[in-house]
Recover the amino acids of this structure.
């Protein structure tokens, strides 16, 4: 398999050929069965402290688009929740589907959302680099936020306004002065469980914190996500659109999901 992707020949069903962790014991995403989630009063409130000056660049990775941040110091960090110490903001990105009826990676009681935002952080107290943290069981923290179709989201508008400059794979454009807290819902109630990257190399180093309350995105805004290209340049006859980039839910195996709320 030359390059992994989301099509039949290189998608989630065959990732295990090159990435054996695909069949591991703590894979993500999962279906969150709310009645099985255990309320844990020892979970602290989440503390999100981001600085808009940390935002640097938006990149079309060929699988999604990602907003990358300066993670050279602890200017933008996530604390609290299940975490010991502080986790440094590195990037955020989205997953979506070929139509609005599905596209999130996690599910709640079997229900799909239209899309899902992932804000990626790494444990800068315990590890000296992101790559080192990415290989450790407590190295990464990803904050997951569901997106449902509704009113246009003015903050997502700032992101889709950059798409003209990053239409094809590998393109990037400056993306500054953006605090991702603006993409968080009113309630910070969450579920948390030990999991993995949802993309190859599927490393089992992520403590997931999935917010219960979704944010909104309009049908038109989400349609723009799909207009980005998986491929290098538009010259290719079949310059494929980024129609869908979500991994199916994985077995829970021997894991418990904890809830921060009753
Ligand atoms: C667009 C993001 N693609 C990747 C980039 N990285 C992975 C490669 O690094 C390994 C050393 S990552 O660890 O930052 C990361 S976390 C998630 S997810 N969907 O699980 O939130 C995807 C990605
Ligand atoms: Zn993701």
């Amino acid at each position: 398999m030359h390059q992994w992707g989301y099509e039949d020949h290189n998608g989630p069903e065959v990732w295990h050929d090159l990435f054996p962790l695909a069949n591991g014991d703590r894979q993500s995403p999962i279906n969150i069965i709310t009645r099985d989630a255990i309320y844990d009063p020892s979970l602290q409130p989440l503390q999100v402290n981001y600085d808009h000056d940390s935002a640097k660049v938006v990149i079309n990775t060929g699988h999604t688009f990602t907003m990358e941040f300066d993670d050279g110091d602890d200017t933008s960090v996530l604390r609290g929740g299940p975490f010991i110490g502080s986790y440094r903001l590195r990037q955020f990105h989205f997953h979506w589907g070929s139509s609005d009826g599905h596209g999130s990676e996690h599910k709640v009681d079997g229900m799909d959302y239209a899309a899902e935002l992932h804000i990626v952080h790494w444990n800068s107290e315990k590890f000296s680099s992101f790559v080192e943290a990415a290989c450790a069981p407590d190295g990464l923290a990803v904050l997951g936020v569901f997106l449902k179709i509704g009113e246009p989201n003015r903050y997502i508008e700032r992101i889709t306004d950059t798409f003209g400059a990053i239409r094809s794979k590998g393109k990037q454009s400056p993306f500054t002065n953006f605090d991702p807290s603006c993409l968080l819902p009113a309630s910070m109630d969450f579920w948390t469980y030990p999991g993995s990257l949802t993309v190859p190399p599927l490393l089992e180093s992520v403590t997931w914190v999935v917010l219960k309350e979704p944010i909104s995105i309009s049908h038109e805004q989400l349609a723009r996500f799909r207009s980005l290209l998986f491929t290098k340049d538009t010259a290719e006859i079949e310059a494929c659109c980024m129609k869908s980039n979500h991994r199916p839910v994985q077995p829970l195996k021997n894991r418990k999901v904890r809830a921060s709320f009753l």
Notes: The first strand starts at residue 31 and ends at 32. The pocket of zinc ion (ligand 2) is lined by residues 93, 95, 118, 198 (CB under 6 Å). Helices lie at 130-134, 154-160, 219-226. Residues 12 and 247 are 6 Å apart (CA to CA).
